[in-house]
């Protein structure tokens, strides 16, 4: 990948925080989705989910690679993925939710994809070239992720009574984790000011539209916006993240520097 | 679950200018999903620029028992091969 210089005026600490947030979202969701490998209800779905997981892990390498560069302490993407502890992770809580059944995994994917799509679309056109380049590449992959998860949410929502019930339950269960996607703090404010990221709230209208359209078509009822769980973006996670990390990081922790 | 889905034959065009080639089959509930599944199953290594899918049940095949009458007669028609022309060197490999 061509390496343009980073914009010198941008606050390095804020930039690092943002890169960890977007990179950790991809990493943790990628790992979650990879848990389906060999367990999906059909061979075709198994491969499709594995592809999605691999896309996300590929994006993680780019985001965390840049994060390591910005941090300037010589840490690689692998170091950041495998050698940080839970409170150092910055992913939103939605992506660490357990897979549940196939429908719930797809609902989580759809809610995330719709936002991820809009975020990357906005990042592509902003000033920080290194970020725009990664966003450009990831956007194509995520456009397909969204097409697929939206399609399946509609099909399963508007499918049998059983599939409809499961999708509605998944939606109700995951909805309180969607608010964190649009939360903003001082880090976001600094980067919005510098023209590096879009205002998080500015993605909400587009997300509402994509989600509402799919839910209507899938005969699913959008839950009311009530209490929204937050914390992942500042390192306060649910108990689920620890289990993910213990599995994901085991090898590097037990055999430091192991390669194959 | 997948056994309830119909079978689809998948054809991929590897490059512009080439024909679609049969690459295999898969299960899917309808054509749109068959295309998606084909993308995920058969084009993971950058194999394609275009996908066709068709319900396997829509394909009419010649019967193996008809093999003799259908194909044997052309065995002895050597004059149908364009091997009796002199090809100029400039044409190169054909």
What is the CATH homologous superfamily assignment of chain A? Ferritin, core subunit, four-helix bundle
Strand content of chain B: 15-25%
The appropriate CATH architecture of the domain at 1-59 in chain B is Roll
Query: What is the CATH T-level topology of chain A?
Result: Ferritin
Overall 3D form of chain B: flat
Strand content of chain A: under 5%
Supply the number of helical segments of chain A: 9
What is the radius of gyration of chain B computed over CA atoms, rounded to a whole number of angstroms?
Answer: 19 Å
The main β sheet of chain A shows up as:
none
CATH class of chain A: Mainly Alpha
Order of helices and strands of chain B: EEHEH
Structural class of chain A: mainly alpha
Count of strand segments of chain A: 0
Mean pLDDT of chain B: 88
Helix/strand/pairing class of chain B, anyone?
Answer: alpha+beta
Largest interface: A-B, 12 and 15 residues
Query: Whole-number average pLDDT of chain A?
Result: 95
Radius of gyration of chain A: 18 Å
- Beginning-to-end CA distance, first to last residue of chain B: 48 Å
- Count structural domains of chain A: 1
Keywords (chain B): Oxidoreductase
Pfam family, one (chain B): PaaB
Protein name (chain B): 1,2-phenylacetyl-CoA epoxidase subunit B
EC number (chain B): 1.14.13.149
Characterization of this structure:
The complex is a heterodimer of chains A (260) and B (94). Chain A has 260 residues and is mostly helical. In chain A, 62% of the residues lie in helices and 0% in strands. In chain A, α1 (12-34) packs across α7 (186-193) and α5 runs parallel beside α8. With 94 residues, chain B is of the alpha+beta class. Chain B is 18% helix and 22% strand. Chain B has helices at residues 31-42, 67-71; strands at residues 7-13, 20-27, 50-55. In chain B, strands 2-1-3 form a 3-stranded antiparallel sheet, covered by helices on one side. The model of chain B has no long low-confidence stretch (mean pLDDT 88).
